[in-house]
């Protein structure tokens, strides 16, 4: 009787690392990230569209702006490219962050603030190169083309063919440097702030649980921090992905000089309110959707004889 009681705990303890190891694979994070990205961009795209329009207002008459703003469908120009890119981006972002943080975590899975920032920064670089830059380039050119009355790039297919014809494959990677800097900084700030605030919320919550509304608020705060810290990079990225970027600016560094000389430092904050609105709502949506989807995909579904079967 006594020996059976002693033998039971080792089996339970031994099974936990195996279960945890299975749950830390990247595929559930990839799927959950894709679901989170598709959900948030569908809801928040009008913010993204308005922000991009504001940042591209150089040389566009107020009459054209008013005409476009009066059309509801105008707010969803470039949505197809954006939702595709955001879905892939979010999947890569969460999955790569999951893998990087797993590699950096200590023996008990703990992550310091520095390690969280490093994992977030690396995830941002990964998503920028693999997904964000090409899809953002297509979306931005479509919005700019509509404002300039360029019918060739009104559709995703038209934009892709025009970019390939005029610039070749490298045209999809316009502004890759500012985009990568923005995404890596975004991810580092977002995951860093979210992780630290969630840890504090869990310590102060009952049984380490966080109320869903608190989780939403924490996600929103992390989005606000992203918007405030990386807005100038976002403006440079948008300008360098516009149709006339090569003619007006040439490169990202010259773009900064031209904006400073001709428009002043305030131009680097154009579209800030739209971006604040979008990222605060987006992060409030993405983190809960990601975590609940990930939990759904990784939670054991059956129990037999006291053992967990996945």
> What would you give as the CATH superfamily?
Mitochondrial carrier domain
Helix content: over 70%
Strand order of the largest sheet: 1-2
Judged by helices, strands and strand pairing, the structural class is: mainly alpha
Number of strands: 2
How large is the share of residues in beta strands? Answer: under 5%
Number of domains: 1
Radius of gyration, in Å, reads: 22 Å
How far apart, in Å, are the first and last alpha carbons? Answer: 30 Å
Number of separate helices: 11
Q: What's the shape? A: globular
The CATH class: Mainly Alpha
Mean pLDDT: 80
Low-confidence region ranges: 1-24, 59-70, 302-310
CATH architecture descriptor name = Alpha/alpha barrel
């Amino acid at each position: 009787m006594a020996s059976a009681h002693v033998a039971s705990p080792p089996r339970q303890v031994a099974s936990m690392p195996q279960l945890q190891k299975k749950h830390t694979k990247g595929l559930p994070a990839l799927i959950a990230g894709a679901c989170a990205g598709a959900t948030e961009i569908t809801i928040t795209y009008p913010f993204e569209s308005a922000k991009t329009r504001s940042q591209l207002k150089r040389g566009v008459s107020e009459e054209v702006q008013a005409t476009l703003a009066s059309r509801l469908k105008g707010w969803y120009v470039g949505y197809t490219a954006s939702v595709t890119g955001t879905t892939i981006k979010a999947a890569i972002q969460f999955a790569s962050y999951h893998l990087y943080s797993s590699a950096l975590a200590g023996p008990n899975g703990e992550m310091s603030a520095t390690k969280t920032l490093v994992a977030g920064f690396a995830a941002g670089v990964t998503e920028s190169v693999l997904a964000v830059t090409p899809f953002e380039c297509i979306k931005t050119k479509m919005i700019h083309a509509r404002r300039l009355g360029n019918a060739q790039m009104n559709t995703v297919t038209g934009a892709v063919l025009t970019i390939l014809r005029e610039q070749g494959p490298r045209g999809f990677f316009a502004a890759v440097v500012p985009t990568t800097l923005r995404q890596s900084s975004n991810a580092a700030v977002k995951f860093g702030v979210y992780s630290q605030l969630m840890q504090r919320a869990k310590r102060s919550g009952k049984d380490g649980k966080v109320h869903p509304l608190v989780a939403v608020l924490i996600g929103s705060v992390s989005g606000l921090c992203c918007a405030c810290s990386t807005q100038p990079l976002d403006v440079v990225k948008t300008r360098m992905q516009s149709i006339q970027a090569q003619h007006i600016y040439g490169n990202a560094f010259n773009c900064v000089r031209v904006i400073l000389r001709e428009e002043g430092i305030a131009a680097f904050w154009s579209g800030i309110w739209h971006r604040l609105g979008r990222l605060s709502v987006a992060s409030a949506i993405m983190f809960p959707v990601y975590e609940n989807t990930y939990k759904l995909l990784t939670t054991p579904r059956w129990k037999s004889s006291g053992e967990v079967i996945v």
